[in-house]
Amino acid sequence: MVARMDLLINRTKTRITKVTEGFDALGFHCVRRRSPTSGKRHIDIFPSQAGQRSIRRRIKSFTTRRAPVPPEAFVRPSNEAVEGWVNYSRHTKASQAFRA
Question: Would you tell me how many other CB atoms lie within 10 Å of the CB of residue 89?
Answer without folding.
Answer: 21
